[in-house]
Amino acid sequence: MSISRSAQLYFEIEQVLYTQLEEDGYDVPMDVIKGALKDLFDSVAIHTWSRPDVYRVAWEEGWPISQGAADEILSDVERRVDAEFGITWLTFEIAVQEFYENFDWGKLKREEQEAYIGYFLIEHHYPPGADQPLEAALHLESVSQAAALDAASERADLSDVPVSLYSIPKDKEPSLDEEWLKIYAHKLWEFDSEEG
Q: In 3D, which of 126, 131, 104, 125 has the Cα closest to residue 116?
């Protein structure tokens, strides 16, 4: 196998094959498996994309994501791959954008909300000059959408003012600036204090 390319996929194939043969009662040494696969591995060039790649793009774009959503996006990308240009980061950016374009956050059940992990910003809508018992914003990093919803609902009740919940990019410093919110944030929910 060429050592100049990433060997992770090849390693995983060898491991799965070794484990399955062992579970089926075959004692085949790893060096035999590697030798049997060597010709195959040396005769192909494969670049693989995986869930972490989809997570990266989704979080850079400010979207929470679940394993199931990542699998759906990977499947969509693979189904529509362009044989001329292959799969690129732009391919994933477009696929993520299309996935979330008309996404209905309200249809997710609690278990599904717990699976969507992301970066969130909670904004309190205090009237000008009003007392602010809580800070105007709360930044939540790498939490489930369910936890973010719970926090936003609780803060609406505690502050007695409306609260907005945004999903935001992982690596951007959060801001309540209107222009920043317009460019980077995705408003997922609004809570009135009595909705809790």
A: 104
Spatial CA neighbour of 62 closest among 151, 166, 146: 166
Nearest Cα to Cα of residue 74 among 102, 103, 99: 99
**Cα 190 to Cα 188: distance, rounded to the nearest angstrom:** 7
* Structural domain count of the chain: 3
SS3 of 29, please? Answer: coil
Indicate if 147 and 183 belong to the same structural domain: yes
pTM score of the predicted model: 0.81
Q: 117 - beta bridge partners?
A: 65, 144
Is the per-residue pLDDT at 6 higher than 60? no
Question: Which 3 state secondary structure label does DSSP give 144?
Answer: strand
Q: Same domain for 98 and 112?
A: no
Please give the structure tokens belonging to residue 66.
Answer: 């679940």
112 and 98, same domain (yes or no): no
| pLDDT tens for each residue of 33-48 | 988 888 888 887 777 8
